[in-house]
Amino acid sequence: MNWGRNFRLSVQALSRARVRTLLSASSMMIGIAAVTLLFGVGAGAEKAYQAALETMGKNLLSVGAQRKPGNALRGSSQRYQTLTLADWHVINDELDSVERAAPIAMNSFALRYGGKSVNMTVIGTSPEFQVTNNQLLKEGRFIDEFDLRKVSRVAVIGSQVAFELFQGVSALGERLLVGGAPFTVIGVLEEKGADITGSPQDNRILVPVTTALQRLLAVDYIDRIFVQAVSKAMIGSAMGELQELLRSRHSLTATSADDFTIRDQAALLSTLDKTDKSLSRFLTGIAALTLGLASVGLMAVSLLAVRERQGEIGLRLALGALPRQVLAQFLSEAVIIALLGATAGLLVGVFGIIVGAWLLGWQLALTGMSVLYTFLISLLLSLLFGAYPALRAARLDPIIALRGA
Asked: What is the 8-class DSSP label of residue 232?
């Protein structure tokens, strides 16, 4: 079989019916563009998932103060104030399943420097926070044990704080006002972006937890404790030990509910990932529907072409063309239309990914595998939905075909 000759005949036939070819390729283009965007969403979600894993600490648990039942009509509630620095010390020093723990006491304060004023989140914490929450220093040093013991007025600032207050000038050694109290900048953090819940992490200022409690917040309780388990396998044991320890320390009876919560950060991340996958499945359904309609359109156009070209087919068969040659020609036409649509759809999809990622800030990405899958899908669909019209053309009786021409 002369495949080159069949290809030339297919191209000539398609060029004679340009409008029909364009419409058929356009329907395939829309379906392939939807599939490309779907791959972009999936790759972007995976990229975001990996980025979140890198920014958060490994084997991390979050122990937080539980909310009290509030006024149901107002929808308000307050948190228990039973988590203390003493709880943190016991967790950090006595639990075998815990590698390290970091306390958190936080609130929003006005920061002032050189006539500039911004509202930022101030977090009182300990040296362990640098490891538990993967805090990387751009310059300077982190909070140390000496700062905690001396209740030092020192601060480590996020990249956004450094930019807004110091405008690119080194902040080390500078004194800024936190809620009216002077603090000396000892370190600047690397940019981290948003955390797994979408909250920004670069608009924070870290101070010794003892300083935060005594000089800023004037309270004797903390908001939460980040706990890093010894290993992933020990997370379950750590959660059990934490619950037992805190219930005992808070003098809770067997019938009392916990006044604290324990959350596995990895489980939260997994939940968010499942949400992304649910969205991906929804988009998969839309893309499959679009491709299905495009494939039906391709088959309908091919059947129409067979009907309109009965005379041509009958003449070829009468002149000695074999049915398999006619079959190959019409299959070639279906493949060409599908590949044209796939190429155009891929370009449209890539443009959509670029626009979505650049202008709209969506999490989208393009991979080489998605390009390969796009063309494989279009090729498979062209063979599946082009086979029936091609078989009808190959099985035409030459005499009947010539009479119906």
From this structure: G
